[in-house]
Design goal:
6-stranded antiparallel sheet, disordered C terminus, 4-stranded antiparallel sheet
Length: about 260
């Protein structure tokens, strides 16, 4: 009786070949790969965080200046294109230049001025070049309590008979206003108010605009009060040559510096 020989070599080879063909990572390799990815991710995050923080700090630093620049730009364009008051009371379009001192609910300076100009209005493009009534004042937002520099523009100065005048278009020039003060140069002194009707229908030689903005301070510090001042010459003014104006105002106490605020 013949015995059958078992081919152990073939059997062992058949078993070992699939084992050798399997591929993959060991547990140690996976742990090392994850650790390396974590290190790279942390390095990228720290660099990106520093970059975004620097960007936010830069934007916060220039934000008040941008707000003040835009507000001053609108005020400057309005006043540089100001129209002189009429020499008589029969004019139905251009009326008096009126500027008064005022205070807001905090007791800070919040002056008000109303005049007529041909300056462009961004929210009234179709009326650019026309005569408009402009009012600048400080108002308090009833919802947020924020103090805002507001510009009101009325363009329909001659409404048709039987129709009421349109509502002035209101535009917020900047937020976070600490104070807004105006002074008016007669040619010899600075005054804190102006009424062209009582001053021979003349405009001031120049207007000094002082805008103060309140912005949050650094962590644990008091809020910052930033002051911006500009002097705007009025090209159509005749106050400097008008002896009646300088004579009437010369007896009052004027100021010769930048407007205050607290």
């Amino acid at each position: 009786m013949k015995r059958r020989r078992h081919n152990f070599a073939a059997t062992s080879g058949a078993v070992s070949r699939p084992a050798l063909a399997r591929g993959g990572f060991t547990l140690i390799e996976l742990v090392l790969a994850l650790a390396l990815a974590g290190v790279i991710g942390g390095w990228l995050y720290s660099n990106m965080y520093a970059a975004f923080k620097a960007r936010s700090s830069a934007e916060a630093a220039v934000e008040p200046s941008n707000d003040a620049y835009l507000a001053m730009h609108f005020v400057s364009m309005d006043m540089r294109n100001m129209l002189p008051p009429p020499n008589n009371s029969t004019s139905t379009i251009v009326q008096a230049f009126e500027a008064t001192q005022g205070q807001d609910d905090r007791g800070h300076e919040a002056d008000q001025v109303e005049f007529y100009t041909t300056a462009d209005a961004a929210n009234l493009v179709d009326s650019n070049g026309e005569i408009k009534n402009v009012e600048l004042t400080v108002e308090t937002d009833p919802v947020t309590g924020d103090h805002e520099l507001v510009r009101r523009v009325l363009r329909d100065l001659l409404p048709p008979d039987g129709m009421d005048s349109e509502t002035p278009a209101t535009e917020v020039l900047c937020h976070g206003v600490w104070s807004f003060s105006l002074q008016y140069f007669t040619g010899s002194t600075w005054e804190t108010s102006w009424d062209s009707q009582s001053l021979d229908n003349t405009l001031p030689v120049a207007v000094e605009v002082t805008l103060q903005l309140q912005r949050p301070g650094a962590s644990g510090k008091q809020p910052q009060i930033l002051t911006y001042t500009d002097i705007l010459p009025i090209s159509c003014s005749t106050a400097a040559e008008n002896s009646d104006v300088n004579g009437d105002l010369g007896d009052t106490s004027g100021t010769s510096g930048a407007g205050g605020g607290e």
